[in-house]
Batch of 3 targets.
Target 1
Amino acid sequence: MRAFVNRDGIAFSDAQSMQPVQEWDLAENLEGVLKFQTRYKFQRCWQSHFAFPDNFGADTTQIRYIGLKVEATQLKKDVVATIVYEVTPNPSEHKTRADAGGGLSHVE
């Protein structure tokens, strides 16, 4: 299995020629209980692709589940706690320039 991180538009042909962040030699296991360690730290990862160049000689490849176990690290930046998006603003909740003595009466 080959892993690629933060790459847009990877095709099957690209996965053969591109350098992955990590490769694993998978073992055939019908119970699906194998665990593999990573040496690559998936930091700042917003997108990941996995390519399976071999499938133990079968005509088709079936992947039923891929689980990633991760450990969260502390955030280094302050997180915005409350974000409000207004689809339709309520003018009574907003001050206008006229309210502040500016002379205009529209909502900004």
Note: Helices lie at 12-17.
Target 2
Amino acid sequence: MSFPQISKILNVAVIGCGEIAQIAHIPNLIVASDMFKITALCDISIQSLELCSKRFSIPNTFTSVTDLLASPITIDLVFILTADQFHAEHIIQCANAGKHIMIEKPMAQTLKEYDLVEEARLKNNVIIFVGYMRRFSLALNRLKDEIKGKEIKYVKIRDIIGNNKYFTSQSGQYQKYFKDHPNESTKELNKRIKLNLIENLGIEEKVESDNNRNIHSWSLLHSLSSHDLSLMRDILGMPEKCLFSTRSNDFQNKSWWWNVLFDYKSFKCYYEMGIDEVAYFDAHIEIFTNDSRLKIQYDTPYVKGLPIKFTIQKQLSNGDFSEQIIRPTYVDPYTIELPLLYDSIVNGKDYETKPLDAKNDTILAKMIMEALVK
């Protein structure tokens, strides 16, 4: 793990003071005080603002992005941690104000939004850094090195985890949740959710329950699945097509369970995803070659210090079976991404997670929904 040359401290505004801000981003930014200083907070929830302002000693608070950007407060970089459906709008606002951006995934909701964000990035010459934190794990680099020159035969990706509440409640950050959101914002959010579904899938749902089910499916594919789809692309590239996908039929469980098969030129990639009521985090990617099995096992990002492990299983030339477990670091990916973000802004270092890279996850989500079979 290398650190960039530190030449200045970036002034940061955090937009969105909910769960991920309280548990990960604000504490990490405060600890990385040689690179970052939080100068302002913004949220539509007055209670969230008051909590974070008091807890983290950040006095400048705003309830609208427009007011934040119009203020005389010095801002070099904005962390956008708002509801997914407002991401693209807030990114473009901040980019047009000349601010660099770290955006939580999913970066946008529709293909058009990705193109508009990319247009804003180029026009304003700003960094738009998508926070695919699993891609910043050092174990992933070890895996990439290990598969070089090997012929891949099969890939299995699994993300079956307990509900986030089991892990966030043990994060040790004493986060709080508030619901004092303006009615207008809630109405606008629900409106955008439905309009995005129609734009992405090209269907006008007539049965409300079916509509809700597809809305939930799209949300899940864009949230939990985006971790896996982004990892898959990073390691393997884009698949030729999605051969089939299925989801659970129990509407009461909101289609938590998915099975998907992707077709690459010389191998298949099987993906399974689900959320249950067991406090266990089973997220891994496993690659099978002729002579080895390579596996990265991720743990919950909400509890700091849990290791990401890379396991190599192979048959030795003398016939022995060998299993090697590599743990590159205990540093969590949320922390690892901060020097990379800093380096891209201050030192001009290139980075992978740009808007058009992120656009591929929505393309894959569309492929999965279009390949649904009963």
Note: The two ends are 46 Å apart (CA to CA).
Target 3
Amino acid sequence: MRTSSFLGKADVVLRGFSGYNTRWALRVLARAMEGAAAVGAADPVVVTVFFGANDTSLPDWKQVHQHVPLDEYQNNLRAICAYFKGHVWRR
């Protein structure tokens, strides 16, 4: 579904950084989400978090700097989800 499908029905806030893995995203998450929720806006109904492709880069390949071990990846995703559950839109 395209964001244009929501015109006039919902505010869609996109935040994406090409090439980022969960480790790097955690470092910039708070700054990346600044201004995402307008004052007086309703709390979000849906938040989509999409990571994994860069995290799974093989550690012995050219993109070794993007690789994140599975246990760290899981912990990073939990931390990202906890951020959205408890920090971004709480007033």
Note: The chain has two helices and no strands.
